[in-house]
Write a structure and sequence with these properties.
This protein is an alpha/beta fold and about 450 residues long. The chain has a domain of about 220 residues: ATPase, nucleotide binding domain (Nucleotidyltransferase, domain 5, 2-Layer Sandwich), CATH 3.30.420. It has 15 helices and 13 strands. Helix 2 packs across helix 12 and helix 9 runs antiparallel to helix 12. The N and C termini lie far apart (about 65 Å).
Length: about 450
């Protein structure tokens, strides 16, 4: 892999990004403490937001419901048919969200959502129905909720900067827009994306305890005993006190108030400082798709500055923040050709490095590998915090993990599994991990079903 100096630098980097089993267990304990704190009080570092979903699906429910998913560059609308016996079929469409909507008034976004649902129903031939369709609205943003259909967005994350939504019930805004367009839809539920994934998997597999997303951002939701959610005392009906409720952890902010709890490197600090939200979502910045490419780029540039890569040759692209996308990392990590041809193409044709040697490409491959592997191990430690919080290992459990990073980044699931094994030993065999595709939209539909059922009881 090149000169002695290059080999030493790569080894030092691997050591910085290596997380041993004892460190994973320590991280898990730190997060578990923050989960407990979030259940006891509002405004905790890890928010632990109640979803007000307190009925498990049985998998036997039937009917037709809508799911509307607002999370990234597209909105996705799902027409979901629940067939019972855990079986589901869907029809769906996606609509591009332009940047003026992402950074504009909430009224413009809501109107766009309502019009898109209206178009979708026309496409399905469902624009006039005898009974309005129940819709679950899914947002991959932290929500402050007081009921299953009452929620306001606490913070627009990722690249959203929507204005005029503070303390406004997002379900009510959407319902008013449907009424304006005379669209036969009732917004029965508002939920977070991670809650949606958990509901979708719970319909198929009744022992599902946790759902986590590792995509542009990261989050997790799980079923918690209502009696353990101290901050809900006095707000829950007696009939629900002995049951479960889905809690949206918002674990992306783990360690924001205790930065020393995470094994951050100088490169993590650099990415954090240069981000749009310094000192916020520190955990997310170490594991999610929005940041992993930039984290790798910052290491590559440091190696270039030290004359360890590309013989001191720079390019505008490699020097530009966020120009090295996480998808490039993914392609490089999966490149197994003898000459690392895909890596060469990305570095020379896309990042415009004038020329690269095989040693350069091997170093960049090692950098991407180290960053990706650490992300997977951090996710595993976070999952184990919830497993331990619920003391769930003894009986066995199912976990739903989804998202572009988990599903498409090379070896990510394997690294997660290996990390859980290093924490739990052979007991890890009691954990079943599944993937829920389209979990947000399907979960939104399941939430609408549960809300309508509760209303009619």
């Amino acid at each position: 892999m090149g000169s002695e100096e290059q080999l030493q630098a790569v080894q030092e980097l691997k050591d910085q990004f290596r997380l041993r089993s004892d460190r994973l267990k320590q991280l898990s304990q730190h997060l578990r403490g923050e989960l407990e704190e979030g259940l006891h009080k509002n405004n905790a570092n890890v928010a632990m937001l109640p979803s007000w979903i307190s009925k498990h699906p049985t998998g036997q429910e039937t009917g037709e419901y809508l799911g509307l998913d607002l999370s990234g560059s597209f909105i996705r609308i799902y027409f979901v048919t629940l067939h019972g016996q855990g079986r589901i079929s869907t029809r769906q469409q996606k609509y591009l969200i332009n940047d003026t909507l992402k950074k504009g008034p909430v009224t413009h976004m809501i109107d766009f959502l309502a019009q898109s649902v209206d178009q979708f129903l026309t496409f399905l031939g469902k624009s006039s129905v005898s009974e309005p369709l129940a819709l679950g609205f899914v947002l991959s943003f932290p929500l402050a909720q007081t009921a299953i259909n009452k929620a306001s967005v606490l913070q627009w994350t990722k690249d959203f900067e929507i204005t005029g939504a503070d303390n406004k019930n997002i379900a009510e805004l959407l319902q008013i827009a449907f009424q304006k367009h005379k669209t036969p839809v009732v917004v029965e539920a508002v939920i977070n994306g991670a809650v949606g994934c958990l509901l979708a998997h719970s319909y198929r597999s009744l022992d599902t305890l946790v759902a986590c997303t590792v995509s542009t951002g990261t989050n997790a939701a799980y079923w918690e005993k209502v009696s353990k959610v101290e901050k809900l005392k006095g707000h829950v009906q007696d009939k629900d006190k002995d049951g479960d409720m889905i809690i949206n952890t918002e674990w992306g902010s783990f360690s924001d108030k205790h930065p020393q709890d995470l094994p951050r490197t100088v490169y993590d600090n650099c990415v954090n400082r240069c981000s749009v939200n310094p000192e916020i979502h520190l955990f997310e910045k170490m594991v999610s798709g929005l940041y992993l490419g930039e984290l790798s780029r910052s290491i590559i540039v440091d190696f270039m500055d030290r004359r360890l890569l590309f013989d001191g040759q720079y390019s505008k692209e490699i020097s530009t923040q966020n120009a090295f996308e996480t998808s490039y990392m993914s392609a490089i990590s999966s490149d197994e050709t003898p000459e690392l041809e895909s890596t060469k193409h990305i570095l020379e044709a896309i990042m415009n490095i004038p020329s690269t040697t095989i040693a350069d490409r091997q170093i960049v491959h090692a950098i991407c590998e180290a960053v990706g592997r650490r992300a997977a191990r951090l996710v595993a430690a976070a999952i184990s915090a919830i497993i331990d919080k619920r003391n769930a290992l003894e009986e066995g459990l199912t976990i739903s993990v989804e998202g572009a990073i988990y599903e498409h980044y090379p070896n990510f699931p394997r690294h997660v599994n290996e990390s859980l094994r290093s924490i739990y030993g052979d007991s890890v065999d009691r954990i079943n991990i599944g993937v829920t595709r389209d979990g947000n939209g399907i979960g939104g539909a399941v939430a609408a079903m549960i809300a309508r059922k509760c209303k009619n009881e």
